[in-house]
Amino acid sequence: MQIIFFDLSEQRKSMLPLSYTRVLSDLRIGILKISEKWTNRLGIDQISYLTEDYLQEKFPCYESDENIFIQSNVCPNDILLGEIMRLEDKDVLMAGETILAFRGTIEQFMQQDWNYVEYNGEFLQVSHPWEIFQHNGSEMEYDFAWLTAGRNSEPISGTNRVLNPSQVFIEPGAQVECAILNANNGPIYIGKDAEVMEGSVVRGPFALCEHGVLKLATKIYGPTTIGPHSKVGGEVNNSVILGYSNKGHDGFLGNSVLGEWCNIGADSNNSNLKNNYAEVRLWSYASGRYAPTGLQFCGLIMGDHSKCGINTMFNTGTVVGVSSNIFGGGFPRNFIPSFSWGGSAGFTEYKLNKVFEVAEKVMERRSIDFDEVEQNILKAVFERSAQYRSSYK
Which 3 state secondary structure label does DSSP give 117? Predict the structure, then answer.
């Protein structure tokens, strides 16, 4: 049996720019990626994807004798898992008009050859980028309980000050010294071979994934997740870094989501609250305009491979696309299209050959090849996002 994660085009558009370079099930919320939550809980390690053509080479689709189709941006819970495992051939599990799961062949799925089963329970569907940090705390508690059940944490060094140690879990190879870990408000999870350097203060819920690093005297307010192979310093509040990205120096990041291969320059800050305390509006690719979030606190959404120079200032509710480079004084605009080069003084188009040069160097530092598959994805995103850069030409 295998899981096939499927993306619907309208859902992918509402999750841009994070979905430009990945399937939705590849997003991280809590401790794990959405796909990892399902494979762990269902005990199925064979997965494939039904998604847009330009992503299919990186996220391929195969058919097995038995297939369970899962909506790519839906997170599992115990009740939903039980209902899915009871599905029979050609059964589709629906919550209103939302397709949650289907059991059968790809042909049956595509032709909608279905037997309808209604689901009346609760579920989390991540439909907008800000919902990643908004629901990060509840998903982290769910993941923490699953990952630590029946297991013992590695010993916590006596150099640390720990509050509520039963809710602190350290994986093998992790190093934590001379830190304050306060798990009274939620669990703290330190992944394999991760490091929390001296003087760091962490208030849970918090997850530092494998090979992640908190640099000296970092201040963390939960719910915050630092994805694998990421380095973080300064002050971070209720944010998610998907992985392989750095915010290695002082500066504030709050109520934000950073993609992979991003870098935040030293002393850069984002605002997460408007001066008039009004609801934050965020650029929506789906509607083509700024849309209400229902949130008073909302910071920065940054797509993969984007970077900013030192002392960059981001306004409340700023969206940065894929492979943009922001620098200079003042506040840049609230919506920065993919492949933009510049800052508050204006932008030009970031040429694709230069993007490739930087991406190759950055990924090489993590011993990952910037191969033809990755190049083709960025080429496709460059073409798909060209309309937003038309004013640069």
Answer: strand
Buried b / exposed e along 290-328 (16+ C-beta atoms within 10 A): eeebebebbbbbbbbbbbbeeebbbebbbbbbbbbbbbe
Region 355-370 average pLDDT: 95
SS3 146: helix
pLDDT at 393: 61
Burial, 85: exposed, middle or buried (Cβ in 10 Å; 0-12, 13-18, 19+)?
exposed
Helix or strand run (H / E) with residue 101: strand 98-103
Q: Are the CB atoms for 251 and 270 separated by under 8 Å?
A: no
258: pLDDT strictly greater than 80: yes
Q: What is the pLDDT of residues 126-148, one digit of tens each?
A: 999 999 999 999 999 999 999 99
* CA gap 17, 381 in Å, rounded: 10
CB-CB contact of 297 with 313 (8 Å): no
How far apart (Å, rounded) are the C-alpha atoms in residues 136 and 100? Answer: 21
Instruction: Tell me the C-alpha distance between 317 and 322, whole Å.
Output: 17
Q: Is the Cα torsion angle 343, 349, 229, 168 positive or negative in sign?
A: positive
| Separation between Cα atoms, residue 318 and residue 282, nearest integer Å | 7
Query: For residues 220 and 203, what is the distance between their CA atoms, to the nearest angstrom?
Result: 6
Q: What is the token pair recorded at 107?
A: 């042909």
Instruction: Write the CA distances from 62 to 68, 99, 100, 110, integer angstroms.
Output: 12, 20, 20, 14
CA distance 26 to 19: 9
Task: Please tell me the distance from the alpha carbon of residue 132 to that of residue 295, in angstroms, as a whole number.
Answer: 13
d(CA 63, CA 94): 22
Give 190-199 contacts, CB < 8 A, sequence gap 24+: 191/31, 191/228
pTM of the model: 0.96
* Cα-Cα-Cα-Cα dihedral sign, residues 15, 269, 29, 139: negative
* Overall average pLDDT of the 70-97 stretch: 95
